[in-house]
Design brief:
The complex is a heterotrimer. Chain A is an alpha/beta fold. Chain A is built from twelve helices and twelve strands. Chain A has an eight-stranded mixed β-sheet with strand order 6-7-8-3-9-10-12-11, sandwiched between helices. In chain A, strands 2-1-4-5 form a four-stranded antiparallel β-sheet, covered by helices on one side. In chain A, a hairpin with a 2-residue loop joins strand 4 and strand 5. Chain A is globular and about 65 Å long. Chain B has ten helices and no strands. Chain B is mainly α. Chain B has a domain of 195 residues: Orthogonal Bundle (MetI-like fold), CATH 1.10.3720.10. Chain C is mostly helical. Chain C has two domains: 94 residues, no CATH class; 222 residues, MetI-like (MetI-like fold). Chain C is built from 14 helices and two strands, in the order ααααββαααααααααα. A two-stranded antiparallel ribbon of chain C has the order 1-2. Classes of the chains: A alpha/beta, B mainly alpha, C mainly alpha. Chains in contact: A-C, B-C. At the B-C interface, helix 4, helix 5, helix 8 and helix 10 of B face helix 1, helix 6, helix 7, helix 11 and helix 12 of C.
Chain lengths: 328, 287, 323
């Protein structure tokens, strides 16, 4: 299975008044064709920056990006903006966390969906309108003709997210980045949207990168998982392998902090104590060491390398958990 | 106070410095060893900068420009100060009470503010001055000091609804805060709630807009003078500008001097108002 | 949706009408504030009967309310009152107004057009370059320029470009029908004086809003659709960023009518400003009342238009208002 996107040693630095902030520190990741890859981590772990940097959406004079990102065999890093743009929409697309802010508030829904069709695919106004209506029906919007004439603020959150998905898949991309696509939605709507994405992925044969803080979402919706912490991938594996054979204490902690229906009502939800290290001043050893209940002296001094455990399972820990992972 | 000064950058400091200098000149002006601003030096009319005895030179009448700038600061700043303080105090009182009372009174007050604000401020000031400064006998010229009073009254009327509306708006946002509701539910008197809970929170907004209003009033004083209804024969920046407006073809620097002083003062008061506002936004953000 | 828009527009109209009536009533009351009886200003001599007759003709014997209603009726029908001289009516205000108004409107429209044409590209350009070291100097520069009163620019330019360099006439007005080239030359300095603070204000507003809009997710979304930078700017960024600019533009329409008064005086341009000046000097208070009322009405109408236009530019505000 060949990779539709390959990320090699990607580093993203922001120059801020407080110093240089290294948000992504040498990430290497392949996204196989048609696969669903989850990127998990708590907020501030660099997962959103990683996905935007992979696509080349970070702009500004204070951003440095180095390493390599190839899409469909073509290198994207260092490519002029206008050339990168040729891949957007038709090759790579993105959906965002908050459909309220990601849809232009002053333009009608239909115009926003049709825009990509007209400009990227060169469709006529009439064809684009017809296709827009189809797309809106495809993402489960009840009355597409009426929805096309509405402004985003006149739709519910779930409907807005469906519109955004329609915009993203309009030009049949090979790869879809979904950045926390369900975080801003109600739980019941979340499930519907994830189901919709899975269905579309199967129909269109597109690969998807699902960026989320929720391991539960990842477990049911992805083929591969990469766990990020402090700008690095600390564990990556096929989804079933990861949940069967967890190596990183951090991954375990993330899993434990998900509320489940079975959890004892009286019991306290475990939280990960402490916080992410200051991104402008990283510790020498493992970034998670100060918060890790298994941490030893070595963890604080030496930065752990990425270890291959076979089966495509990589982790970054001096003292990995014994297999199989103990689930509480 | 130190906290306010601490956050200032160079530009704001310069503005604060300039404003302080102008206020100082306005206060000590008459005690400085300067020629009489209304006394023409016929030996040295229309002389340039740094002439002996006239640091900023003189205009074509032989009036000393430095002395006019210094003593003009007194009149111009006094007009600005009085109209902003009186207009601001009245406007704030009306705005706060009407917003607090709500209902019909508030609707009427709001409409009145809108009505007055619907007349461009210079036009309103002009109409008021034109009417109030009319003497019953056309042959009697109205004295500069009476003109100053008339201008103050007119500009107070201009400032009042501006600050009144700000105060009203600010009060409306504070009135539903928990601590006001709590104070009400504990049965405190309205007067107490207004003075203790609302006024202290509304005042910062008034201060910052007040500085902007100072700029507006100084501009208006200059503009009224140019239109011939300012402190025409008196000593003020506007009067200086109006005297040279027709004749700067001969003595350009006698126009540059008052115009520069006026512009710098307006810039300074606007910047100070803007700075105060940004500081207050920050404080709001930290709450 | 449409009905809500119509209802809210009607409500705006009603409100504006109320403000117009309030403002014009206030102005007609102002005449009563005169320290002397109005008729005494115009009637010379001791003849009580002729004084009374004149006062009656000017309706000064009516109570302020009736006076106002009659005045309003005349005003609505286009009778703007008369210039008064020596105990009689001399000249209708509308005659002088029809000569002065076009001149002032020319000034206002030229100034607004020049300001927008310069400020829009400047605002976008500086917004795209935001975050550089020179930014702070730029924003202080714009702030300073927007604070300087237009008559200061007027005086400085008249002196420098009009007199010292003599590139343009420092004073006077030439009608476009008379000599178009000279008309343009005569308008350069006054329009520049009016435009300068406006350009700074508009640039500042647009710059701030464009910077804010560029940070929005929907702009990133537009980039991820593969649209060109130019297309994103014009169809995604400019419209949501122009609400403040539009509002300020319309508000300045009214403020400019005030601003032209001074500029007309500085450059001796025969517009409304000069007519107002003449009216004040010759104590033509009826004419003054009509001029000021007209300016207030214009100001109110433009503010209302601003509200309606903003409603079209940003549909969100429509809902907020009808809610």
């Amino acid at each position: 299975m060949s990779a539709v996107m390959s990320i090699r040693d990607l580093v993203v630095r922001f120059r801020t008044p407080r110093g240089v902030l290294e948000a992504v520190r040498g990430v290497t990741l392949d996204i196989p064709e048609g696969a669903s890859v989850g990127i998990v981590g708590e907020s501030g772990s660099g997962k959103t920056v990683l996905s935007r940097a992979a696509m080349g959406l970070l702009s500004g004079s204070n951003v440095d990006r180095s390493g390599s990102v190839t899409f469909d065999g073509a290198e994207l890093v260092g490519l002029p903006r206008d050339h990168v743009r040729q891949h957007f929409g038709t090759g790579i697309a993105m959906i965002f966390q908050d459909p309220m802010t990601a849809l232009n508030p002053v333009r009608r829904v239909g115009v926003q969906v049709a825009e990509g069709l007209r400009i990227r695919l060169g469709m006529s106004r009439k064809d684009a309108a017809a296709r827009t209506s189809e797309l809106l029906a495809m993402v489960g919007i009840p009355d597409p003709a009426a929805a096309m004439r509405k402004f985003p603020y006149q739709l519910s959150g779930g409907m807005r997210q469906r519109v955004m998905i329609a915009i993203a898949i309009a030009c049949k991309p090979k790869l879809l980045f979904a950045d926390e696509p369900t975080t801003a939605l109600d739980v019941t709507v979340q499930a519907q949207i994830l189901e919709l994405l899975a269905g579309l992925r199967a129909n269109l044969g597109m690969a998807m990168v699902l960026v989320t803080h929720d391991l539960g979402v990842v477990a049911n919706n992805t083929d591969f998982v990469a766990v990020m912490y402090a700008g690095e991938i600390v564990e990556q594996a096929p989804t079933t392998e990861l949940f069967a054979n967890m190596k990183m204490p951090y991954t375990e902690a993330l899993l434990k902090s998900i509320p489940t229906v079975e959890a004892r009502p009286a019991g306290r939800l475990p939280v990960i104590e402490g916080r992410l290290p200051d991104p402008t001043d990283r510790p020498a050893g493992c970034g998670f060491a100060p918060r890790c209940s298994y941490a030893q002296a070595r963890c604080r001094e030496d930065h752990p390398p990425l270890v291959d455990a076979g089966n495509g399972h990589l982790y970054r820990c001096w003292f990995p958990l014994a297999a199989p992972a103990r689930r509480s | 106070m130190r906290r306010l000064l601490g956050g200032m950058d160079v530009f704001t400091r310069a503005c604060a410095g300039w404003m302080s200098l102008m206020v100082l000149l306005a206060v000590v002006g008459p005690f400085l060893p300067l020629p009489d601003p209304r006394e023409a030096d016929f030996e040295a009319s229309a002389v340039g900068l740094f002439s002996p005895g006239h640091v900023l030179g003189t205009d074509s009448n032989g009036y000393d420009l430095l002395s006019n700038v210094v003593n003009g600061a007194r009149t111009s700043l006094m007009i600005a100060f009085v109209s902003v303080v009186v207009g601001g105090a009245l406007g704030a009182a009306i705005g706060i009470v009407s917003a607090y009372r709500r209902g019909r009174i508030d609707r009427v007050v709001n409409l009145l503010f809108n009505i007055v604000l619907s007349i461009p401020n210079l036009v309103l000031g002009l109409a008021l001055v034109a009417i109030l400064a009319t003497s019953s006998d056309p042959s009697v010229v109205i004295s500069p000091s009476r003109r100053v009073v008339v201008i103050m009254i007119a500009l107070t009327c201009v400032v009042l609804p501006v600050l009144g509306r700000i105060a009203r708006g600010a009060t409306l946002t504070w009135i539903n805060r928990e601590f006001v509701v709590a104070a009400r539910s504990m049965g405190m008197r309205d007067r107490h709630i207004i003075l203790r809970h609302i006024v202290p929170n509304v005042l910062p907004a008034i201060y910052s807009v007040g500085f902007l209003a100072v700029g507006v009033v100084i501009v208006a004083e200059g503009a009224l003078s140019l239109l011939g209804v300012g402190v025409v024969d008196g000593v003020s920046w506007g009067a200086m500008i109006s005297r040279v407006a027709g004749e700067f073809t001969f003595v350009p620097h006698s126009m540059y001097v008052p115009v520069t002083v006026l512009a710098l003062t307006v810039i300074a008061s606007n910047q100070l108002g803007d700075y105060l506002r940004s500081r207050l936004d920050l404080r709001e953000g930290r709450l | 949706m449409l009905r809500l828009t119509v209802v809210s527009a009607l409500r705006r109209l009603l409100q504006a009408g109320l403000v117009v009536i309030g403002a014009t009533f206030l102005l007609s009351l102002l005449l009563r504030l005169l320290p002397v009886g109005l008729e005494d200003l115009y009637v010379v001599g001791e003849n009580e009967a002729s004084r009374k007759a004149f006062a009656h003709e000017l309706r000064l014997d009516r109570d302020p309310f009736t006076y106002y209603v009659l005045w309003l009726w005349d005003f609505v029908r286009g009778d703007l009152g008369w210039y008064v001289q020596g105990g009689g009516l001399s000249e209708p205000v509308s005659g002088r107004l029809s000569r002065a108004l076009p001149v002032s409107l020319q000034l206002v429209f030229y100034a607004q057009a020049v300001s927008l044409v310069v400020a829009v590209p400047l605002g976008i350009f500086t917004a795209l370059r935001a975050g550089r070291r020179s930014d702070r100097a730029l924003s202080y520069g714009l702030f300073t320029a927007s604070s300087i009163p237009n008559f200061v620019f007027g005086l400085l330019m008249a002196s420098f470009f009009g007199v010292t360099l003599a590139w343009f006439p420092p004073l006077g007005y030439v009608a476009p029908t008379e000599n178009l080239g000279e008309h343009i030359r005569s308008m350069v300095l006054p329009v520049a004086a009016l435009s300068f603070p406006l350009i700074a204000t508009y640039t500042r507003l647009l710059r701030t809003d464009v910077i804010a809009t560029l940070r929005e997710d929907y702009v990133t979304m537009a980039v991820s659709k593969g649209l060109s930078t130019r297309r994103i700017l014009f169809s995604h960024v400019l419209r949501p960023s122009s609400v403040t600019l539009f509002t300020s533009f319309a508000l300045n329409m009214g403020a400019l009518i005030g601003g032209t008064i001074v500029i007309e005086q500085v450059f001796t341009i025969p517009g409304i400003g000069q007519e107002i000046g003449i009216a004040i000097f010759s104590r033509q208070f009826f004419a003054l009342q009509s001029y000021v009322a007209l300016i207030a009405v214009g100001f109110i109408v433009f503010n209302m238009l601003a509200d309606i236009v903003v409603g079209f530019v940003d549909p969100r505000t429509r809902e907020r208002r009808s809610a």
